[in-house]
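Posting this for the archive.
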Amino acid sequence: MLNRDPELLLPLIKELENYIEFKDKINKLVSTSDVAWQIDHSLKVFNLVSETLLNSNPELYTSKFNKWRLLLFTIGYFPRGKVKAPKYVQPPENITIEDLETQLEVANKNIEKIKLADRNAHFKHFIFGVLNKKRTIRFIELHTKHHLKIIRDMIK
C-alpha cells in the first residue's frame, strides 16, 4: 500500500476553506444542498474520523478483506448519490462561517495529531470495515475530494 502521509490532506482542507465565500451557492442540478452543507459535512467527517482514529486502541486492530474498499480505494472515486450521510455527520440547518472556521482549525490540528498516531490506530467504517491509519487517511482523502468535486460542479 502507498505511504499515506497526513500532510497530503492539508491542500484539501485549504481548498474547502477557499470555498467558504460561496457557502450560500446552490445548484439543484448537482446537489439539493448548498456549498456550506458540503463543506460542513466534509469537515464533520474529517474531524470525527480523525478523532475516532486517535482514540482507538492499536492493539485491537484487525484487518479483513473488503471488496468495496479494494475497488473504491483503488480507483480513487466515490460515486455520487449512493450513500446517505449518517445523522451524526449531517450539518445543522444554519451553518455559520464561524462554525466552519472552527472546524477547519480542528481539522488542521488533527492532521498534526494523526502524524503521531500508531500505524494500527483505526477507524471502523460502516461500508469499508476497519481501516488502519493509512487506509483511514485514504478514506478521508477520497471523501474530501468527493465533496470538493461536488462543490466545484456547483459553482461552475
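The helical segments are 10-18, 35-55, 67-75, 97-116, 133-155. The mean pLDDT is 95.
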